[in-house]
Amino acid sequence: MEKGTLTNEIADGVAYLRFGHAKANSLPLALLESLSAAIEAAGRDPAVRVIALSSEGEKAFCAGASFEEFQRITTAEDGRRFFMGFANLLLSMRAAPKLVVVRVQGKVVGGGVGVVSAADYVLATNAAQLRLSEFELGIGPFTIGPAVERRIGTSRFSAMAIDTAWREAEWALATGLYQQVLPDIPTLDEAFDKMLRTLASRDTRASAALKAVLWEGTEHWPRLLPQRAEISGELLARAP
After folding, report:
1. pTM for the whole thing?
2. Total structural domains in the chain?
3. In angstroms, rounded to a whole number, what is the distance separating the alpha carbons of residues 18 and 89?
4. Residues 86, 164, 104, 147: is their CA dihedral positive or negative?
5. Among 9, 55, 5, which Cα is nearest to 30's?
6. How far is the CA of 186 from the CAs of 16, 20, 34, 53, 189, in angstroms?
7. 14 DSSP β-pair partners
C-alpha cells in the first residue's frame, strides 16, 4: 500500500514540509504520523521560526483520508487508530509554538479541510474548492469537526457536514478558512514565499505568544479529539 511521501527542509528560519500521495495527495495513517512528528520536531527546533505546509503537484491539495485504508478497516479499534492520525496531526499543529502557514493549490476534501482549518494562515488559489464528504461515506467529520467549526462557526460547519457540497475558494475566503486567494499557482507561490519571509523575521517570543492567544479555548482538544476519533472508528467499522 502506498504510504506517500514527506519532504522536510529547513532554510532561513522556515521549516518546509511537503507531503504527497499518488491518490490526489490523500492521507494514509503512516503519512499522518510522519506529518505530526515533523511538525512537533519543527516546533522544538530553535532554528525554525515558522512552519510551511504544502502538498505535491498542481492539482488537488488533499483528497482527505486514504480510501484504500478505509476499505481495510474492519474493527472499531482499527478505525479509532486511523482517525487518531488526524487527531494527532491537528493537535500537533495547534500545539506548535510556531505559526503554521498552509499553501493550497487545488481542491480540498474531507480530512484535508481539517488540516486547512488547523492552520494559522492559509493562502490558496481560486481553484481551491473544498467539501466535507464524510457523511456520504456513512460516517461524519467528527475528528476534524472542532477545527472546522472553530474557523467558520457552527452554522456553516453544519451545512458543510450535512449537504457535502463543493464550496468555492471565495466562499472559504469570506468565511475565514482562507486568508488569501490568488489567481494562479505562480502568484500563490510568490505570496506564500513573501509571507514566510515576513513571519521568519518576526520575534519568536511574540509569535509564540500570539499563537497561544489565537488558540485560547481549545485546551480541551486533547480530550475531545480522541473521543471524536472513537465515534468515527465505530461508524466506519459498521459502514456497508
Report:
1. 0.96
2. 1
3. 14
4. negative
5. 5
6. 18, 19, 28, 17, 5
7. 11, 50
- CATH code of residue 107: 3.90.226.10
Amino acid in the structure at residue 27: L
* C-alpha span between 48 and 50 (Å, rounded): 6
> Where does the chain show beta strands of DSSP type E?
5-11, 14-20, 50-55, 99-104, 108-109, 121-125, 130-131, 180-182
User: At which residue does the C-alpha cell 475528528 appear?
Assistant: 143
Q: Dump pLDDT digits (tens) for 79-116.
A: 999 999 999 999 999 999 999 999 999 999 999 999 99
Matching residue, cell 479529539: 225
> Does some domain include residue 121?
yes
- Answer whether residue 179 is part of any domain: yes
Contact 17, 6 (CB under 8 A): yes
In a domain, 105, yes or no: yes
3-state secondary structure 84-105: HHHHHHHHHHHHCCCEEEEEEC
Secondary structure, 3-state, 57-80: CCCCCECCECHHHHHHCCCHHHHH
Q: How confident is the model at residue 70 (pLDDT cuts 50, 70, 90)?
A: confident
